[in-house]
């Protein structure tokens, strides 16, 4: 049974003052429930609660905060199957992938619990006798966190646990498309002992909520995961009020296949990653730049793997790829394909909607895609692999770095020299070579250029939730 999801404010689940928003199953296009829509009064209650909660939570020892995060991970892990089922119903991804996401969220809660106790300061040697110079890390204050629909549980858990580990309170604005699974993260933390007011959850009209929360004097820090377009709009609001930012935005990840690569390994691994979550991921490999000598072989093998991807409803056995999030994504895919083919690309497989019920789209491969095709310049955010040949290293790097995006980049090569040169030259916040090792709690997660600023992973992520205070004291 899918619940009617409520707001969580000051330790209580409550209806929204602005009514409800329907929640649809993308595999059936049918309404499965509702989510509460917050009004201005709800946001004011959440802000007041977060302000009180911060005063309380910052005084809780880091050791005790960590124990609560670990307990929440235990609770959430026990409910993995239940939370994953909710995610399948509202987001569409296959059940096995949904379970993996919940488990990764639990890992994040545990890992950042450990970091709560490692917010070290330092002592700076003084120039005079009897002077102590201390650097102290303090929580920045109440956080407004905005999470997307494509990774609803892991994103919610990361942003909440980063804030809580640092000693901040938080108001989470989770995605209205996937409210129930995000709410379960909040429920687990509340049951684990997070005090009332420290953690709040709201839903509603995204623009209304962001435009009210971000400028509000209570909020000291903004963290957002979503599109570059929306991220820039929120950054403008935050900048006008000097709010600290962590922005994890869009990507258009290049993948370089050099002629000395293990083509069999590369084709199999990349096809698996490309169609995971229906390609609806900011670090999904997108532009496949393949050296001429192995181009035809790689494309043929990749097409074979793509055609073996079973598409269907997330609870069906053997399904690898579920539906897209909504009808807008289907229309976007159709538009990208039509434009690319018109400009000279070859449609090797897919390129069309599947069935007449649900937002299913076939795993798609386009080869010989020209640079002026829209899909080579705009983030597709769907099950679309774009193939283009290159001659030499410099040509490949020029194309890899051409776009304003710089989130993730991938390469396959047997040459240590080539791998090192690629890692040094590519303009991306995350680089993975000969495997796919991104997104773990302990490693940085963020981009450069239009792909954002700051990190949502590793020790780097914690820094965004602290202010640095310098204290210098002389003997009386």
Short description:
By secondary structure, the protein is of the alpha/beta class. It folds into two domains: 7-249 and 450-472, Aldehyde Dehydrogenase, Chain A, domain 1, CATH 3.40.605.10; 253-440, Aldehyde Dehydrogenase, Chain A, domain 2, CATH 3.40.309. Helices cover 39% and strands 21% of the residues.
General description of the model:
It is a single chain. The model has no long low-confidence stretch (mean pLDDT 97). This protein is 39% helix and 21% strand. It has 14 helices and 20 strands. A hairpin with a 2-residue loop joins strand 1 (7-9) and strand 2. It has 2 domains: 7-249 and 450-472, 3-Layer(aba) Sandwich (Aldehyde Dehydrogenase, Chain A, domain 1), CATH 3.40.605.10; 253-440, Aldehyde Dehydrogenase, Chain A, domain 2. Helix 2 runs antiparallel to helix 4, helix 3 (80-91) packs antiparallel against helix 6 and helix 4 runs parallel beside helix 5 (152-166). It is α/β, with parallel strands linked by helices. The strands form 5 sheets. A 7-stranded mixed sheet has the order 14-15-16-13-12-17-18, with helices on both faces.
The coarse silhouette is globular
The fold-level CATH name of the largest domain is Aldehyde Dehydrogenase, Chain A, domain 1
> How many structural domains are formed by the residues?
2
Task: Provide the spatial order of strands within the biggest beta sheet.
Answer: 14-15-16-13-12-17-18
Strand content: 15-25%
Q: In DSSP terms, counting alpha (H) and pi (I) runs of 4 or more, how many helices?
A: 14
Examine the secondary-structure arrangement and name the CATH architecture of the largest domain.
3-Layer(aba) Sandwich
Terminus-to-terminus distance: 67 Å
């Amino acid at each position: 049974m899918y619940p009617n999801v409520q707001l969580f404010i000051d330790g209580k689940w409550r209806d929204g003052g602005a009514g409800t928003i329907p929640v649809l199953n993308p595999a059936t296009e049918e309404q499965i429930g509702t989510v509460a829509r917050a009004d201005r009064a709800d946001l004011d209650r959440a802000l007041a609660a977060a302000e009180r909660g911060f005063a309380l939570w910052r005084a809780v020892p880091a050791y005790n905060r960590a124990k609560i995060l670990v307990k929440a991970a235990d609770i959430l892990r026990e409910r993995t199957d239940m939370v994953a089922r909710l995610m399948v119903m509202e987001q569409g991804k296959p059940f096995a992938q949904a379970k993996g996401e919940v488990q990764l969220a639990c890992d994040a809660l545990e890992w950042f619990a450990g970091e709560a106790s490692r917010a070290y300061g330092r002592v700076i040697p003084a120039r005079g006798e009897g002077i102590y110079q201390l650097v102290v890390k303090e929580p920045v204050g109440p956080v407004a966190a905005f999470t997307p629909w494509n990774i609803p549980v892991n994103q919610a858990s990361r942003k909440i646990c980063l804030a809580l580990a640092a000693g901040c309170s938080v108001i989470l604005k989770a995605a209205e498309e996937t409210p129930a699974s995000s709410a379960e993260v909040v429920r687990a933390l509340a049951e684990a002992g997070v005090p009332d007011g420290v953690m709040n959850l709201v839903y509603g009209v995204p623009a209304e909520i962001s435009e009210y929360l971000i400028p509000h004097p209570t909020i000291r820090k903004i963290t957002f995961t979503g599109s570059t377009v929306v991220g820039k709009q929120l950054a403008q609001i935050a900048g006008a009020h000097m709010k600290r930012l962590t922005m994890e935005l869009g990507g258009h990840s290049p993948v370089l296949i050099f002629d000395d690569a293990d083509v069999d390994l590369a084709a199999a691994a990349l096809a698996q990653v490309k169609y995971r979550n229906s390609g609806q991921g900011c670090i999904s490999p997108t532009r496949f730049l393949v050296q001429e000598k192995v181009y035809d072989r790689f494309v043929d093998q990749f097409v074979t793997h793509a055609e073996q991807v079973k598409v269907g409803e997330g609870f069906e056995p053997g399904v690898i790829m579920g539906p897209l999030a909504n009808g807008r994504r289907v229309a976007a895919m159709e538009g990208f394909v039509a434009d690319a083919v018109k400009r000279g690309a070859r449609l090797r497989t897919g390129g069309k909607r599947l069935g007449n019920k649900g937002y299913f789209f076939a795993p798609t491969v386009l080869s010989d895609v020209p640079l002026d095709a829209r899909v080579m310049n705009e983030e597709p955010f769907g099950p679309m692999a774009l193939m283009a040949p290159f001659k030499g290293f410099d040509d490949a790097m020029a194309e890899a770095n051409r776009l304003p995006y710089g989130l993730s980049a991938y390469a396959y090569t047997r040459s240590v020299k080539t791998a090192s040169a690629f890692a040094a030259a590519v303009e991306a916040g995350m680089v993975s070579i000969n495997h796919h090792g991104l997104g773990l709690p302990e490693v940085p997660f963020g981009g450069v250029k239009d792909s954002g600023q700051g990190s949502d992973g590793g020790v780097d992520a914690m820094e965004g939730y602290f202010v640095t205070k310098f204290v210098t004291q002389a003997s009386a």
